[in-house]
Amino acid sequence: MKYLVAFLFFTFSITAFSQQTTVSKKIHGTVISGTSTFPLQDVNIININKVKGTVTNVRGNFDIDAEVNDTLHITMIGFQSLRVRVTNDWVKNGNAKIELTEKAIALEDVVVRKYNLTGYLEVDTKLIPDQENFRYSISGLPQGYEAGEYSPKAFSRVMNSIFNPADMLYNFFGNKPKELRKLKEMKKDNTVKALLETKFDRETIAILLGIDKNDIPEILQHCNYSEAFIQTANDLQILDAISQCYEQYKVLKK
Fold first, then answer.
1. Which of 60, 68, 183, 235 could form a disulfide with 199 if both were Cys (CB 3.0 to 4.6 A apart)?
2. What is the reported pTM?
3. Are residues 230 and 217 in contact, defined by beta-carbon separation less than 8 angstroms?
């Protein structure tokens, strides 16, 4: 009798453990154009939950590690970005067809005039500053704070940002520890890194961190990155900047 009880207990434990453990598996998909129905090559697919990425092949096919309820972020230049939830049917059947919608882009003439240049070299060299961006270093920290002409008193601003409980940095870093831990995971995946190097729209970063992309410039301003850096850096550089700021925040907070 005691052997029967032990066997039943062992069987029940294995069953309970298997029910609690969800194993990731490869799911397959095909991305096509919603207009032409042709397969799309080099579409970027990122599993937001696992911070893993891949791209489609010449037939529009892709494989990626995922489990039920994971969210895939799908992007390609010239098409609307799409987020797709992994369902039980998808995992069971192993394949799904996904359509992307083309963007309607109207280009207009844009004239960029940061400086009012005259065309005379002797005059114009005096109008353009020699060094617009520089960094402040803080003793004990491996990284410094970048500051531009619109970021005076960098050191005092950083300290106020860290120690003022009502400040944006305090609220942002304090309320999103799980999302910020994804920063290191993002840089481990070569597909994600390659994608971020080519993007400047902050969309992928915002989705992975679970924030509004309009908040990113304000976060970097509080970290004393210059306006020029915020406007011109690619998404991977922005990701590194937020990551460095977070590490410095943790040091100063202690």
1. 235
2. 0.66
3. yes
